[in-house]
Design a protein that fits this description.
The chain is an all-alpha fold. Among the domains are: 119 residues, no CATH class; 159 residues. It contains 13 helices and no strands. Helix 9 runs antiparallel to helix 10. The longest helix is centred in the middle third of the chain and has 50 residues. About 7% of the residues have low confidence.
């Protein structure tokens, strides 16, 4: 039996004070939550947080798709671009370093030469220290011995040039006359008038360069003053580097290198310095052997200015390859002018023998494995040094290369030791 429609409408109408269906559901939910134990509620909250974290990580791990207008750059091109800009930064840094070296050449050149002299005098200083002398006293005595040695050689050479200079000029004049006589006897016979014309043109050119020569002498005076100041700076720097070099280097590396890398940089620098000292010691021995060989051949042949040849060969031998070739050419020219072409050929053969003994016997024996440089690297280093810095660049190229190779090798060896052994 159904209810009347008026009564049904009264029961279906929502009460003004009663809860709605949604409120009833919420109430049921709250009541159920109140009945859940605290441990279960904690586990449910942790599960919710873990699910949320998984969702976030999965969304972050998914790669971003490139925009429609951005190209998909290959990985190889990205790696090449990374290396390219790093190489450009290194090139700019090297160019700035060279520019600074040239701009402050009044300081940098004496200091660099002082470093080489320190490496050369280090064995002598160690011997004096082992004999009981204090480090600064041993350094001062080593520098003094070097000054006496170089000054004695230059004094002896000057006195010999003053004594044999007039005789050498007469020999040179007779040699020029003999050359002209030989030219006149050639099949295509250069006549005397052409030779006289060439000589007169040369004399006229020299007379026209009088103003240039005067300005050149003035510039030479200024250059001599700069040379004297540079020489004094070099000697003072050598004294302190030889006596307190370790302390100076430790403070410098502590100022410039981060603490984490100081031990590694110190060990690599010490290995590079050991290689540089070995190279300078070997260079002195090789230069002395070359000078003695060339001077002995000149003395046997009766070539004038034997002491000058000895000094020239000794000092030029510190420039690898180029120095020995230049000194040998001067010796051959002196023999040719003073005694004719037969003596010139004998002198040329003697120079070649001396150079071959140096290259194949003396250098491997003296240098050994301390300075492991290939002949091609030596030639390229001298070429690059000559292009960048002239004669000074060629002089500094091989010592710098020897230090750099030992320094980098030490760093690579330490990195290899740090790798896990499989």
């Amino acid at each position: 039996m159904g209810l009347p429609d008026s009564v049904r409408r009264v029961f279906d109408r929502p009460s003004a004070t009663g809860p709605s269906t949604e409120d009833a559901k919420a109430g049921v939910t709250d009541a159920g939550a109140a009945l859940v134990p605290p441990e279960a509620a904690t586990q449910d909250a942790a599960s919710s947080r873990e699910a949320a974290a998984t969702t976030v990580s999965s969304s972050a791990a998914s790669p971003r798709q490139p925009a429609g207008l951005e190209p998909d750059v290959p990985r190889g091109l990205s790696v090449a671009a990374g290396y390219a800009w790093r190489v450009m930064v290194l090139v700019v840094f090297a160019a700035a370093l060279l520019w600074g070296f040239g701009y402050f050449s009044a300081v940098t050149i004496p200091v660099v030469i002082a470093i080489l002299l320190t490496a050369m005098l280090t064995p002598i200083k160690r011997m004096l220290v082992s004999a009981g002398m204090p480090p600064m006293g041993a350094a001062a005595l080593s520098v003094l011995l070097m000054i006496v040695f170089v000054g004695g050689i230059l004094t002896f050479v000057g006195s010999q040039v003053a004594q044999e200079g007039p005789q050498l000029i007469e020999m040179f004049s007779s040699g020029i006359q003999g050359l002209m006589a030989w030219l006149r006897e050639l099949p295509y016979a250069i006549n005397q008038s052409a030779l006289d014309s060439w000589v007169q043109q040369g004399l006229d050119w020299l007379r026209g360069q009088a103003t240039f020569l005067a300005s050149g002498l003035a510039s030479a005076g200024i250059a001599f003053g700069n040379f004297a100041m540079g020489l004094l700076t070099c000697l003072i720097a050598t004294l302190f580097l030889l006596g307190q070099g370790r302390m100076i280097f430790s403070k410098t590396i502590g100022l410039l290198v981060p603490r984490h890398y100081r031990a590694q940089a110190d060990a690599a620098s010490l290995r590079g310095w050991t290689s540089l000292v070995a190279y300078m010691r070997a260079a002195v021995i090789v230069a002395l052997a070359d000078a003695l060989g060339v001077a002995a051949a000149a003395m046997i042949l009766g070539v004038p200015l034997v002491a000058a040849l000895f000094a020239l060969t000794f000092f030029l031998a510190f420039i690898p390859i180029l120095g020995a070739v230049t000194a040998g050419a001067v010796a051959v020219l002196l023999a040719l002018v003073s005694h004719g072409w037969v003596s010139g050929l004998i002198m040329l053969a003697a120079v070649i023998v001396v150079m071959q003994l140096e290259t194949n016997l003396l250098q491997p024996l003296v240098m050994g494995k301390a300075v492991n440089l290939h002949a091609l690297s030596v030639i390229l280093g001298i070429t690059v040094g000559g292009v960048l810095g002239g004669v000074l660049g060629a002089l500094l190229a091989i010592p710098t290369l020897a230090f750099s190779v030992a320094f980098v090798s030490s760093l690579r060896d330490r990195e290899a030791e740090a790798l896990p052994h499989l």
